[in-house]
From TrEMBL:
The lineage of its organism: Bacteria, Pseudomonadati, Bacteroidota, Cytophagia, Cytophagales. Gene3D superfamilies: HUPs (3.40.50.620). PANTHER family: STRESS RESPONSE PROTEIN NHAX, UNIVERSAL STRESS PROTEIN UP12. It comes from the Bacteria. Belongs to the universal stress protein A family. This is Universal stress protein.
């Protein structure tokens, strides 16, 4: 969590994400790359002007992208200045890319060797959810590194309570290393293991959580089972109940794994739960040192 990327559209949610990233980078001794992606300038009037060529000077179509780039640089510098009290000695790099937003973010992740993307999200209404949070959801599915979704202002950002929801099936053992890294960044945080039951047996769920905690060699943690009609709803309600500071959800798009780990659940929680939500893919981490054998689980789980 040392090399952080914050894509910004200058919205309040993006600003909240920037504030969290600065505090996190300060905590871990990291740096922040502040990114704004300009949509294709050709579509915005950025093509070469034949009129400008005829007159021997730049035409309106050539001036527009230059002015837009200059205005964007000023807005990014203003954000850097505004965040200086939170940043302290954290290095902040300003980057502007052109093209589709999703592709621009993915290119920045690769070029700047990003460890964590911190993005704003909003999910209060159908239309707002589509326009504001669609890029965050896309990064949850596609980013080759963990993504932290932030919806509200968190100053100070202090992680004292971490919620890790899972079905604690055999596949969950593959998510342990990133969970350990997260807990190592916040050694004073209390870990809550959460099983959303639906209509399943709470005793068997508790056995699976205990086996997971023991074989993963996790620190002492709270174990809870909740009933909810939808997994995402159960996670959101529990996070609110325990006043969680961070929710950690592993995902995987690969077929054959428990449906709990489908990105749709992570996307729903990331854009609705109050605390920041950290998501990451199994493919980005190594399996746990001691894989959890299938014999430890009493019955198959479907979410």
């Amino acid at each position: 969590m040392k090399n952080l990327l914050v894509p910004t559209d200058f919205s309040p949610e993006a600003h909240h994400a920037y504030e969290v990233a600065l505090q996190l980078a300060r905590h871990t001794g990291g740096s922040v790359t502040l990114l704004h992606v300009l949509e294709d300038l050709d579509e915005a009037g950025g093509g070469i002007s034949t009129l400008g060529g005829r007159l021997g000077g730049p035409g309106i179509d050539e001036i527009y992208p230059i002015k837009l780039m200059e205005a964007t640089k000023r807005r990014l510098r203003a954000l850097v200045a505004e965040g200086a009290p939170l940043a302290g000695a954290v290095p902040v790099r300003e980057v502007i890319k052109t093209g589709p937003i999703g592709a621009g973010i993915l290119k920045a992740i690769e070029r700047h060797h990003i460890d964590l993307v911190v993005m704003g999200a909003r999910g209060h209404g159908a239309m707002e959810h589509f326009f504001v949070s669609s890029n965050t959801e896309r990064m949850i599915r596609l980013a080759p590194c963990p993504v932290l979704a932030v919806k509200h202002r968190h100053v100070p950002f202090a992680v004292k309570t971490v919620v890790f929801p899972s079905d604690f099936s055999e596949e969950a053992g593959q998510a342990v290393e990133q969970l350990r890294e997260t807990l190592a960044a916040f050694p004073e945080a209390k870990l809550h293991l959460l099983h959303v039951l639906g209509d399943r047996d709470p005793f068997a769920a508790r056995q699976r959580m205990e086996a997971f905690a023991q074989l993963a060699q996790l620190p002492p943690c709270e174990m809870s089972e909740v009933n909810a009609s939808r997994t995402a709803t159960g996670i959101e309600q529990y996070a609110e109940q325990v006043k969680a500071d961070l929710v950690v959800i592993p995902t995987h798009a690969r077929s054959g794994l428990s449906s709990f780990f489908h990105t749709s659940i992570a996307e729903a929680v990331a854009t609705h739960a109050f605390p920041p939500v950290l998501t990451y893919h199994f493919s980005h981490v190594q399996p746990a040192a001691e894989p959890i054998p299938a014999s430890e689980y009493a019955y198959p789980m479907f979410v």
